Amino acid sequence: MGDRPQCPPVKTAQQPDPVCCSALAGQPACCVPIKEKRAAGPTPDADVLEKLRRGYERLQLSSSTSLLRKHLTRELFDRLKVKMTQHGSSLLDVVQSGFQHYDSNVGVYAPDADAYSVFSQLFDPIIAEYHGFGPTDVHPPLDWGNPGTLQDLDPENKYIRSTRVRCGRSIAGYPFNPMMTKELYKQMEKEASEVLSQLDGVHAGKYETLRGMNPRYQKQLINDHYLFKEGDRFLIAAKSCEHWPIGRGIFMNEDKTFLVWVGEEDHLRIISMQMGGHLGEVYKRMVDGVNKIGRKLSFVRHPRLGFLTFCPTNLGTTVRASVMIRLPIIGRDMAQLEALAERYNLQVRGSEGEHTASADGSYDISNKRRLGITEFQAVHEMYSGLREMIYLEELRSQL
Ligand SMILES: Nc1ncnc2c1ncn2[C@@H]1O[C@H](COP(=O)(O)OP(=O)(O)OP(=O)(O)O)[C@@H](O)[C@H]1O
Ligand SMILES: NC(=[NH2+])NCCC[C@H](N)C(=O)O
Fold first, then answer.
1. What is the ipTM of this complex?
2. Ligand 1 mutation pick, 104, 221, 225, max ligand atoms within 8 A of CB
């Protein structure tokens, strides 16, 4: 466990120093009480306020279409700029990625779990627009459903190259990336890799740390879509790539159909993927893997927002189910494809991942919403949307 809490520490009259909220309730501790606070005062210092002021002015003058720009009104900005989380994060820590990159779609991250509460007036409308999850909605309990009901989306192998389902998890006891120290990264990697190395059956595999990884081998893993890229500018701006590559790595089973990313955007990204379109098989492998890991590691879950992640787009189920697909007719015009995807609550990405274009005429199409619906509903949304799209492609090819 790290030396910073993941959930808010609690103070009582008898207990002036913060204690773990679960320990206080007589349950096993789920976090380690904070030892030091980063900020001395209750408001950000003058330098932060000045950066906020300049950043906000520039964002207003930009042509950014980010959700940050849309929802951070002047009035809200003035209200939030003086606030800080109990871990010492300010509004600047929330918005710095969107302030730096005007092509952000969203533009905000939660530097710590408390930020979702302290800056809720900004997060809530962004979350509502992205997930359709209102400020008083409560995320449903975990429900994986029955993966066996999801068939092969493309039994004739005409359109889908590969299928992937991933979810994110934050390990209790560690802060989100911007507040991770070198030591915490090392501790977290050790804890995670020890658990992963004990996985059995189809999930059994090996953990490989990024430190000292052969650069050619690393590049190959990235090109083959197994490993995360290095240098994501949105994450860098959010101070999420500090101490790189310490604490970062990948676990892979022998067939490279079950993978776990450690220390990238979230503490863990648990991934199942394989060639072809059999969503049920891919989903089941991920569900079984997450359940096995969850027996050994404790994950951070918020009473209203479900599983907590660094980016608000990933909250709740944290599930993104995607296919790498070629749709030569309906995919000819990207704007038309995106409009169609929107109709089914799907998101279109390029063939090399988020913020990339399609290099070879294939697209990564996935469910967009992850919060306010169950895990099964999230995957099913992608399943039914993709079935419609493939049906349309077939229909038009016969005209
Ligand atoms: N269905 C798929 N088949 C093969 N590779 C895929 C598939 N979906 C995504 N990928 C690959 O996974 C890698 C990571 O993609 P990307 O970063 O866009 O999504 P992510 O891992 O779900 O996380 P995030 O949404 O936070 O960006 C990329 O190499 C991407 O091409
Ligand atoms: N990997 C993610 N969290 N993706 C969602 C948002 C990414 C980036 N911050 C943006 O606003 O465009």
1. 0.99
2. 225
